[in-house]
Amino acid sequence: MNNPSMKTPSLTFSTAIGNAITFDVTDGNVEQVTLSVANGTLALGQTAGLTSATGNGTNIITIEGSTASINAALNGLTYGGNFGTYGSDTLTIAANDTGSASAPVTTNTVNISIPEVTLAPLDNIPGDQTVNENATLSFSNAVGNAITFSTTDGNVEQVTLSVNNGTIALGQTAGLTSIDGNAPTQSLLQVPLTASTLL
Hints:
Elements: E1 6-7, E2 10-13, E3 31-36, E4 40-43, E5 52-54, E6 60-65, H1 67-74, E7 77-81, E8 87-97, E9 106-114, E10 122-124, E11 148-150, E12 157-162, E13 188-193, E14 197-198
Parallel strand pairs: 1-9
Antiparallel strand pairs: 2-7, 3-6, 3-8, 4-7, 5-6, 8-9, 10-11, 11-14, 12-13
């Protein structure tokens, strides 16, 4: 069996890339292979010729078939890391010969390194606003001037809002991990964001 090691948040195992996972047997019996990861999902390159395939598209796949059909299914196997997950994962590959109850299980692992991807938040900011003297101005979907943010990397974000001649107060604080300055008397406000946070 070949044990490639890749460093990418999403990868493919194939003969074209040179990191294919392959098996060789000589007895002609049906084989069983179980593949598993902890922090992502796996998808077979194909399922044609397999006698059984369960879990395709999840973090644990079990397939049965001839050596040729298993190798064909593993050619193009893809790994996709869970959203917002980085660091490392391990692809565990356990294979056994179903022709004998006493056949040993061969287990191999592939270490997968997943670099952190940090992206700037995407914001939706309304145009210039007008408010009467001694009055308040609300930013909201209902009014049509909501301030919104979205992220694509899954990391916690932080936003700082400030004004020179007034104060700021949030519409709500539920779900925030920290808040600094949220009060009717504060002119500087710092809040962390999750995806699609509405201020």
